[in-house]
Structure formats: C-alpha cells, structure tokens
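Listing S7. Sequence submitted for prediction.
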Amino acid sequence: MALMVLGGIATPVAAVTQSPPTQGRPAPTQVLADIQQRIDRARLVAATSGDVSGLADIAASLRAANTARSGPMAYYVPYWLAYTDYLAAGTLLKAARKGEAMQALSEAVAVLTAAPTSDVETDALLSLVAGLRIAVTTPEQIGEAIGQARDALEKAVALDATNVRVLYARALADYTTPKQYGVGRVAEKYARGAIAQPRESTRALKPGWGRDDSAALLVKILRAGGRDDEAQSILTRFAGEYPDSASLHVAAAAPKQP
C-alpha cells in the first residue's frame, strides 16, 4: 500500500481518494482533484478582472468538505481552504471590499489554527494570512496580527528555511514592513532564494505555489531600484515557466517606474 507522510505519520494515500462521500457533501476526489491548478485558474481570473466568484466556489466546496478530524483530509482541505481565502482576500482588498476581505482572512486563520496537524507549510501560510490581516484589522487587534504573523514565520523558518513558501513569506514580510522599522533590506535576498529552488509539481495535493510569486516580487524590487533590464529578464523567464501565473500577469501589466 502506498503511504503518505503527514505530520510524521505514514497515512495510506488511498485514504485521500477512496473515502466514501458523505451524503450531501462532495466526494474527496471532487474536492481535491487538481486543486492547485483549479485555484490557479480562478486566481488568474480574479487578478485580471476582479471577479472572485471562481475562488468563492472553490472555497465553498472545501468548506463543505471540511469535516474530517484525522488523516489527509483533515490536513489538505483546511490548508487549501485557507489558501483560497487568502487569495480572495487580496483581490477583495484591492477592490476596497474590506469587510469581505476580513471575513475571508478570519476564516483562513480559524481553519489553520484548528487543524489537528501543523507543519512548515501551514505555518508559512498562516504567516502570510496574518500578515495580510494587518492591513484590515482594527487598531486594537493589530498587535495580535503582527505577533501571529511573526510567530508563525519563525516556526516555519525553524522547520525548513529553504522551503519556497517560507522564503516567499520572509521576502514579502520584509518588503511590506515600513522602512522606519529597520527592515526592507532583505526582501531581495529571500525572493532570489525562492526562485533559485527547483520548480515543484502543482498536480500533487501538497503545495507547489510561491516560486512565481517570488519572481513577481523580485521584479517589483528591481524596478523600484531602477534595475529595469534585470527585472524584464526575470519577468520574461518566469512568465515562460508559469504562463498562467496571476502574480506575473499583474507584474507584466504594471506601469514601469518613472
């Protein structure tokens, strides 16, 4: 029997694909089949048109299936639900739909913190979710969001500092923190570290996103520093590798720095 290692526990892979569907809920094969590819397609639509309905539909199906308390479903369904909510919140914030963005981020935090198993992937995602919450939370709660983002990122770094999503989270955290707090100096280093990692599969259940996001972030950093030729070279290279990347499409459409 094929086994999957999850949180240090070997779990039959068949448990993901062969669990009988519960009456009225989508089967695991429907919910998690090509999950990252489907999210990527919906994300591209959201990023280019502002329409989050595709992400909302995926989130709804994952939410309905989020009933397992052990095994792979208890890990992957909350993970991908939180990731979908995180992406939707980013688009909603750009559309000034702050209340809806906060609702999506609150759900993402809730499902990640309630999941029975955590690891480098959930910690890295939680740091990104909490980091985005800083932009929408109340003044009374901003300290909690900052602390949650910091603590989750520190845990993820301790587990695997070379993980693509950890490197991206470190780069983004540094890039988005105001310069007066003494940061904004290592985002380029971590973004370069992320794009130097091998490309990961997006067909497995485990996460494979973040490398294209890191490339898009690096393009922003280089443009801001007047290094337009290198920025264009990186954009061209990674757009070829990830033709459907939402973050790279946004980077390509962004006006050049004056």
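Caption to Listing S7: primary sequence and predicted structure tokens for the chain studied. Residues 1-23 have pLDDT under 50 and may be disordered. The first helix runs from residue 14 to 17.
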